Amino acid sequence: MRNLTFTVIFLFSIPSLYCQVESSKTEIEQIASTLMDYIEGTSNGEPDKLKRAFHPDFNLYSVAKEDSLRIWRGKDYVSNVKEGKKSNRVGRIISIDFENNAAIAKVEILIPNRKIFTDYFLLLKYEGSWKIIHKSFTWQVIPENED
Hints:
CATH topology: Nuclear Transport Factor 2, Chain: A
Distance between the termini: 77 Å
Number of strands: 6
Shape: globular
Largest sheet: 6 strands, mixed
CATH class: Alpha Beta
Radius of gyration: 20 Å
Structural class: alpha+beta
Strand order of the largest sheet: 2-1-6-5-4-3
Number of domains: 1
């Protein structure tokens, strides 16, 4: 009788485990969608996608050449993206990690023959959607080919 009880309990626990995995997949897809709004918004000149991706009070942070902290207001960043003005940049999502309503992500932006930017994001889910609340970034110059 114990074996039968264990089997029944085990079988009833499988749907719960499956639901947790499906829920995680859905959250990853939602986070990726927010990150793609950022990538496509900046690449294709779509400020509305940026406004959808970023929290209105987000800021960007980087270290300047003189080793000082540079803080850029998110509103200023978004206002620099002009409707329909495409930029020569290609982005890709490197990683996403989340727990409940908090996430971190890494994105790489390539500006061909010039620079590679690495963006680190903090995201929060509230009011039913994921928003980027913080962006830190760094870059490296792409070395010229020496033939």
